Amino acid sequence: MQNNQRTPCENPLWPCAMTGAVACLAGFDDLAVVVHGSSGCYFYPASLVGVPIHGTFLVENEIIFGTESRLEEVIRELDGRYSRIAVVNTCVPAIMGEDIGDLARDGQVIIVDSPGFLGDLEAGYRRALEQVAPEVDPDAAGVNIDGICRTDPFCRGNAIEARRLLNLAGATVATTFCLDRYDAAHRAAPFTVGTNPDLASGVGTWCGSLLGLDAVAGTFERLAAEVDGIDPRPITEEIAWADARITKACDKYLRRFDPPRVAICAGRSYAMFARELLKQYLGADIVCVATRNDPATPTADFSTIRGMIRKAEPDLVLGSSYERAISQSAAFVGLTPPLRGRVLLSSRAVAGIEGALWLMDEVLNACINRNRRPESESADLS
């Protein structure tokens, strides 16, 4: 490969298509997910999705003589324990060209051919969702939520915040993609809002994103025009309240400190949301944006990101544990996996009104702590 770039399945910064498929399918709580591949292919997504998955754990002998019998064995073991079984094909079986499609029977076994070399997490997520084949019920009440992904540290928090906002406006929640029961995907409502446009499901009519206060306001205005019974006024009032709180806190910070120089490394939608929020309220100087999954300018190579951050010399870094290690003297806010060395038990949101408040909490506290740090300590960390 040119310029020593890694293939997606080798890149530690952004999960590959196989992991994206597993993350999508693992969101359906009555669906068994089987990773058809080696132990390494199993353990990486298993460490990220936070729920039990299964594997065939292929060894050399099976790779030489064929893997189908091993896969059949695992499916038999799971049969009857789940309503359905999803098999995610990985790189080695895909390269071998084995046809495992015959194992799909009566819709109870779903085959998702999503080896890592097909692309990034989003590509695998969408491929898996295509195999799930969601359906819209034109008579279904409520509004769908999408953009929920099991590898996202904000997965559960985003779902909770989206449901809270919909309920506040008088709407019910239909299907959550993907944090729901499998059957719910086949009776989705006609309208959808998203917590992460990078993972838009394409199911129903898109009514907008919940990333950022302005986006939330626009989304609920569109919902009110499309769906009977939705009242955007409680949302508008809460946005005004949150805006005032953020403005007051940031003005207080700026009376004491200069606007921070910021490097942001994340998926495109999260990165753009963070960039606009920090520019609007803190007048931040955004010196570096490295989007993992932007089709035009993807930045998922560690050496490239390291060069960008060191050249920018930021005061604040938003990203993963990798970026934190690059610039240990900077303030840090975790925005994308992996986030190692931290206990994350609560359901944090980055979407919605609470998501904007959470991010500004983290940013302001991180920057205040850095500015209070003794000069000798800062020098030691540099």
Q: What is the structure about, briefly put?
A:
With 382 residues, the protein is an alpha/beta fold.
Using only C-alpha atoms, the radius of gyration works out to: 22 Å
Q: Identify low-pLDDT runs.
A: 1-8, 378-382
Query: What is the string of helix and strand elements?
Result: HEHEHHEHEHEHEEEHHEHEHEHEHH
| Widest β-sheet, arrangement of strands | 2-1-3-4
The CATH class of the largest domain turns out to be: Alpha Beta
Number of domains: 3
Query: Sheet bearing the most strands, described?
Result: 4 strands, parallel
CATH superfamily of the largest domain: Nitrogenase molybdenum iron protein domain
Fraction of residues in H or I helices: 40-55%
Instruction: Report the principal-axis shape.
Output: globular
Extended strand count: 12
Terminal CA distance reads 34 Å
**What's the tally of helices?**
14
Q: Determine the strand fraction and express it as a percent band.
A: 5-15%
Looking at the structure, the CATH topology of the largest domain is: Rossmann fold
Molecular structure report:
The structure is a single chain. The protein is of the alpha/beta class. The protein has three domains: 2-132, Rossmann fold (3-Layer(aba) Sandwich), CATH 3.40.50.1980; 143-235, 3-Layer(aba) Sandwich (Rossmann fold), CATH 3.40.50; 236-381, Nitrogenase molybdenum iron protein domain (Rossmann fold), CATH 3.40.50.1980. Helix content is 44%, strand content 15%. The protein is built from 14 helices and twelve strands. Helix 9 (233-256) runs parallel beside helix 13. Mean pLDDT is 90; it is low at 1-8 and 378-382.
